[in-house]
Amino acid sequence: MKTYITLVLLILFSFHSKAQGNVGLYVNNFNEIVGNPTKETELLEYAQANGFNYLLLYKLHTIHTTMFLIDDVLQSAPLANFIENAKLNYGILQVAAVGEKNSSFDKIKTYNSFFPAGSFKRFDVFNLEFEYWNTSKVNPGGYYCDTYLDGTYPCTIDGAFDFYIDQLSMLKAYGAENNILIETYIGKLYVITNTQIAQLVQNTDRILVHYYRQSDVYNGDDADPSNDYSIYQYQTGHPDRIQQLATNVAAAGDIVTVMPIFSSRAAHMYTWLATHPLTQPYDTYLNGIDGFNDQVGAWKSQVNFDGYVWYRYTELLEIAVLSTTESEAYENQNIYYNQYQKRIYFNNFDINSDAQIFDIHGKKITKFKIATFYQIDKTMQKGVYFIKTQNNNTIRNFKILIY
């Protein structure tokens, strides 16, 4: 069994917040998982081990067009069995279908009709993903302009938003009649009006708001942690998106339900997660410096946090999780990195054992003979690396973070 060592000890902390609610996981490339018992089990065991109880499934259209018909009661059995297994045996409470327009969910509506209300095989949530604020998609020549707006709506942010609200309103009506939660994912709110924000709130049951940063703090300052403002302050210089949503609900006393989204992709928290727990960003979001709990105003009473969501599964799966054996190996300090000297130190290794360093993609960076320490090459960028050591027939594998 390979042993991966992360070189910064995880600090355990108490998690103080409102009720945690759902912990969601965007599952990309689900078409490569469903129907494959090994990959299904890998996904579900990962979700269970890391506290995920909500799965958002991509690539359902690809499954329908290339694998099996989702709107056929017999052919859709692999999907039905996966959802039922997830709920009965792995603690999954909700499963969402992700689509870009109302008709994206037509096959899912038919699929759900095969099973009675309360069946463990049904989808519980329809998640509409349409980035009305993304001008590269919305403007003339963009994907949304050519595919969805197509002359019926102007290829502008306002035109894209009108299309988006039309889709949401149809989904909301269906959801109300069929006990389906309607949710959506958003980025920018400052590009639309308060009236449009109110429409957004009125036509959804839950709104997912992305906070894509490289750590849990905004403009972190290693020299002065007092400047490490919560990731909640994602859009410095623009209005608070949660406050905007809350102040544009239909009436005083109404509630807007939200979930922040954090990203594990390479440009975001991938490297940071090598040495920090998945639960930390949400805790910092709520309880960090100038986080949600530090905000003031009557609008706060109109916000309900229903947990949080991680994007996305494939990157998260790559990030090693410390096991008991690995923790003991760390405590023995067999190998560790000194960020100030830029050296990797080796303890309890036979001198002149062979060692190799690989990057996160498996490309070999260098090879050397183990001495007391290895001086990091100046050309090595910050990030996650793997070290393979070999002494006679003994091979050991380690994971390190260069920072």
Quick structural overview:
The chain has 403 residues and is of the alpha/beta class.
Provide structural commentary:
By secondary structure, the chain is of the alpha/beta class. The chain folds into 2 domains: 22-318, TIM Barrel (Alpha-Beta Barrel), CATH 3.20.20; 332-402, Immunoglobulin-like, CATH 2.60.40. The chain is built from 12 helices and 18 strands. It has helices at 37-49, 60-66, 77-89, 106-113, 135-138, 143-149, 157-178, 194-202, 241-246, 280-287, 313-318, 324-331; strands at residues 22-27, 54-57, 94-99, 125-128, 181-186, 206-210, 217-218, 229-230, 256-263, 303-305, 307-311, 335-338, 343-346, 354-359, 364-369, 373-375, 383-391, 394-402. The strands form 4 sheets. The chain has an 8-stranded parallel β-barrel. Helix 10 links the parallel strand 9 and strand 10 (303-305). It is globular. The chain starts with 21 loop residues before the first strand and ends with a strand.
